[in-house]
Write a structure and sequence with these properties.
The complex is a heterotrimer. In chain A, 81% of the residues lie in helices and 0% in strands. By secondary structure, chain A is an all-alpha fold. By secondary structure, chain B is mostly helical. Chain B is globular, with a radius of gyration of 25 Å. The N terminus of chain B is likely disordered. Chain C is 27% helix and 31% strand. In chain C, helix 4 packs across helix 5. The chains are: A mainly alpha, B mainly alpha, C alpha+beta. Chains in contact: A-B, B-C. At the B-C interface, helix 9 and helix 10 of B face strand 6, helix 3 and helix 5 of C.
């Protein structure tokens, strides 16, 4: 009603044109390039020992980081919304930090804490624990970057549903754990699911922070994203594309899950 | 009406928060867990970063931060991030408008696709852009190793921020305000300028601030396409990475602290924008 | 003044308006009255140009505006939820229409001050809508609509979002304003009391169609059908027709065509008394409305048998769904109540 037909059309053309140029066409091109040498070549490329180990390492790291982050996210959301402690703004700010910090800085910070020359370095060496240039460091880096996701999805839901149901459960005799399991958890489940999907996508795709702490030891500390960069830098273009394609498939699955869950969350 | 004695309402019970979730103990446990987790994962590493950056003393810190290369990288990073934020603000409004007010086939698909850069690994984003705008470009446009390429990569990864910040506000916007303006004689463009845009502005600025914060630290999508040419296309994040590779962790830490300060400033600015934006809400 | 002809508006299968034609008199306050979904708001918005009809035309002051956008119809519109420009001060809100017409600042300021004085918001120029109460925001919205001196003032349930006492206050105030300013006004409401109090003429709508048009008294006393009768006031069903509870006559003894009934409850509502009756022969229950005086005259109590018949106008349900039975001639001056 407010835009004339001409105005509406020109905005539409501008918006869709921008999206086509920035998103659609590049994706189309890379898909084409990836499968140019044939599907078989792509399969071969992603089933080399290096690729397979990179794939499983990526999954392993995500499988550790995401559940831990989810538990943290739920607890943190409960603390933010259901308690009345002071200094909540500080808590919220710290949780939001990972959004604003460069991944490289994150990696460096972890390196300077847990590395051999870092603050905790000597202590860890004495205990025979290696964090940096090893999987634990990569897990920590991944947890850092994924930190805000679950909290930011669960907190608003908790706020919206209010605690009346929980109070009602308490008056009916439910213990705290029962209340949590039977009342709170089901109420927040779509928020949690959405947050998990976002964290997983981030965990699998993380590059910068993991790059710094991994040491890129082939077969041991090379994740799929690191493999992509590795191959590209070694002029194995098609190999890089193939590994990217695998990651892209996972990204698309994430996108699909996001869209479905958004719909579920809205229809409540 | 016969007067009836009204029973006084029962005194409101004490519902201090500690009784809600299940006792002071549980609250304490929750806060403890969260604090511990955040300290180990976030605060301690950042503290180590800051401390180590001063390993060589304040003068060494200053030298690292003000080296010609570091400054060039920072200047470029800030400049390109501002440009990207501005473009995102404009494109974000246009795209959100099209998604919310316009109707065309495939609108739902386009809406879902907006989040793609958010779901995609940054390195894959870089490769994708290289495929179209790089040395083997099918349209013969090779932007690799140019400053424009950095802008392109940043626009790609920050796209969702601009759109998703504006979209919900546009959806919630009171259409009756626009109808009232129309009944008073305002034309379409006037309505947009005087009614819609002022109410959209806080969200637009929020989106721009988020885009800026992301752009300043972006690494994965930029590292390949920029070619990392010092004094030309090198951004601060890549500069820091190179310093780490050259075993200059202290110098890297110094520049990191500067970048961290920029990020924190952005977060504060975001808070301010948010509260300023809701000043007329009641 | 405003001539709506043959207007229809459908949303998918739903007919919001079905071949509606109405003439709005100049200078009068006309109410569009009806239940939710009757099409009254849609009709108003069609007149305003905020909706375009599927068929039909709208003519304002001899000018066909069917395809003219609201900007150029010279109307003022007031919304139920105020539609205040929340990012602008009261002054900028009220002066918006004049600003858009590129009037000089001095003229705008003078007009704004004048109008704010008229609506009782003098001194509020620099406030923001969020600092005003609901009633104040609506008065500001009225001032804003009047600022451009529209030919027609359209109000869409303007008091619907306000508290009951504010509503009553503003209702009276609007009538006084209309007497002073005399702009052709069309008001949409679902509240028959509001329509009766404010309007010179009422248009009753139901399910997208016009049921009846007339002065409030006309509609109340000579309703065209059951719907209008039921919507404009309380009804009691007696035998084949509908009667107003205060038109029911009760007698302790049989009286011609009067029906036998037992008094089940007597409720004293201050000056009025409601006598609830159970009709004999399983004909159901109705309630009659008497004055205290009349009740005392009757000397009846709960449990008594009385005889009830319509004493005034009544509407008979048409036997074969044709023209309604003519209203009974008015009863002779009040039955001697002894």
């Amino acid at each position: 009603m407010t835009a004339s037909p001409v105005g509406r059309l020109s905005i539409r053309v501008f918006a869709l044109g921008y999206l086509a140029l920035l998103l659609a066409i590049p994706i189309g091109v890379v898909l084409y390039r990836t499968f140019e040498p044939g599907v078989g070549a792509v399969i071969d490329s992603i089933t080399t020992p290096a690729a397979v180990s990179a794939f499983w390492l990526t999954i392993e790291i995500a499988a550790i980081a995401v559940p831990l982050n989810t538990i943290f996210g739920i607890v943190a959301a409960l603390v933010l919304v259901r308690t009345r402690i002071r200094g909540k703004w500080l808590l919220q700010a710290v949780i939001d930090l990972p959004f604003a910090i460069s991944p490289v800085v994150i990696g460096l910070a972890l390196f300077l804490l847990f590395g051999r020359t870092g603050w905790l370095g000597p202590t860890l060496t004495d205990w025979g624990i290696q964090v940096i240039f090893s999987v634990p460091g990569m897990v920590l880096a991944t947890i850092f970057v994924c930190l805000p996701f679950v909290v930011r999805e669960v907190a608003p839901v908790l706020r919206e549903i209010g605690d009346e149901q929980e109070q009602a459960a308490a008056t009916l005799g439910a213990s705290r754990w029962q209340t949590f399991r039977r009342i709170t958890l089901p109420a927040i489940r779509w928020g949690v699911a959405y947050g998990v999907v976002l964290s997983t996508a981030r965990a699998i795709g993380e590059f910068g922070a993991v790059s710094v702490v991994s040491g890129k030891i082939s077969g041991e500390t090379v994740t799929l994203p690191l493999l992509v960069e590795n191959r590209y830098s070694n002029f194995d273009l098609s190999g890089a594309y193939a590994a990217s394609a695998l990651l892209a498939v996972i990204a698309l699955a994430t996108l699909l899950a996001m869209t479905v869950l958004q719909r579920k969350g809205d229809s409540r | 009406m016969a007067a009836t004695a009204v029973t006084a309402p029962p005194k409101p019970g004490r519902t201090s928060a500690s009784r809600r979730v299940g006792g002071r103990g549980l609250t304490g446990l929750g806060v403890g867990v969260v604090t511990l987790w955040l300290s180990v994962i976030v605060l301690l590493p950042l503290a180590a970063l800051t401390a180590k950056s001063l390993d060589g003393g304040l003068s060494a810190f200053w030298d690292s931060v003000t080296s010609r290369q570091a400054i060039a990288a920072l200047k470029f990073t800030l400049a390109v991030s501002v440009i990207v934020a501005v473009i995102n603000a404009i494109a974000g409004v246009a795209i959100a408008w099209t998604l919310v007010r316009d109707e065309f086939p495939g609108r739902r698909v386009v809406n879902a696709v907006i989040d793609l850069p958010f779901a995609m690994p940054t390195i894959v984003a870089g490769i994708t852009l290289l495929a179209l705008w790089g040395p083997k470009s099918p349209v013969g446009v090779n932007l690799a190793f140019t400053q424009v390429s950095v802008a392109l990569a940043l626009l790609f990864v920050t796209l969702p921020f601009g759109v998703r910040a504006v979209q919900p506000v546009l959806i919630e916007l009171d259409r009756e305000m626009e109808e009232a303006a129309a009944s008073l004689g305002a034309s379409g463009p006037t309505i947009f300028r005087r009614i819609v845009l002022p109410n959209l502005m806080p969200a637009v600025l929020s989106g721009a601030a988020l885009a800026f914060a992301r752009a300043v630290g972006e690494f994965g999508s930029v590292v390949l396409i920029s070619g990392n040419k010092p004094f030309d296309t090198q951004v601060s994040s890549v500069f820091i990475f190179k310093q780490i590779e050259s075993d200059n962790a202290t110098g890297a830490a110094a520049v990191s602290v500067v970048l961290l300060a920029v990020s924190l400033l952005m977060l504060i600015a975001l808070r301010v924008i948010e509260s300023w934006g809701s000043r007329h809400d009641r | 003044m405003i001539a709506v002809s043959g207007v229809s508006k459908h949303y998918g299968d739903f007919a919001a308006l079905d071949d509606v034609s109405i003439d709005i008199q100049p200078g009068a306050l006309t109410a569009l009255l009806g239940p939710s979904g009757s099409g009254k708001s849609t009709l108003l918005r069609v007149i305003a140009g905020l909706e375009t009809p599927d068929t039909g035309s709208v003519v304002i002051e001899d000018r066909d505006v069917t395809n003219v956008p609201p900007q150029r119809r010279d109307i003022g519109f007031v919304f139920q939820h105020y539609a205040a420009f929340k990012h602008m001060t009261v002054r900028d809100n009220v002066g918006f229409g004049l600003k858009v017409r590129k009037r000089p600042k001095a003229e705008i300021d003078a007009k704004v001050d004048e109008l704010l004085g008229i609506v009782g918001l003098a001194g509020y120029q620099e406030r923001y809508p969020s600092q005003l109460s609901g009633g104040q925001r609506q008065r500001m919205a009225l001032a804003r609509a009047l600022a451009v001196e529209p030919k027609v003032l359209l109000l869409d349930e303007p008091f619907g979002a306000l508290d009951a006492n504010v509503r009553a206050e503003l209702r009276a105030w609007l009538r006084r304003l209309h007497e002073e300013v005399h702009v052709t006004t069309v008001l949409v409401t679902h509240d028959q009391e509001e329509a009766m109090e404010l309007a010179d003429r009422i248009v009753v709508l139901n399910k997208g169609r016009i049921e009846q048009v007339g002065a409030p008294r006309e509609l109340y006393d000579a309703p065209a059908n059951e719907f209008v009768m039921g919507f404009l006031g309380p009804v009691a069903r007696l035998g084949d027709g509908l009667v107003r509870p205060h038109d029911l006559v009760l007698r302790p003894d049989p009286d011609g065509t009067a029906q036998e009934a037992q008094v089940t409850r007597i409720v004293h509502l201050g000056f009025e008394v409601r006598v609830e009756l159970e009709l004999a022969g399983d004909d159901g229950a109705i309630a009659a409305q008497l004055t205290r005086h009349e009740l005392e005259q009757l000397e009846i109590a709960e449990g008594d048998i009385v005889f009830v018949r319509p004493g005034g106008r009544r509407f008979e349900r048409p036997a074969v769904a044709e023209a309604p039975a003519p209203a009974e001639a008015p009863a002779p001056a009040v039955e001697p109540a002894a």
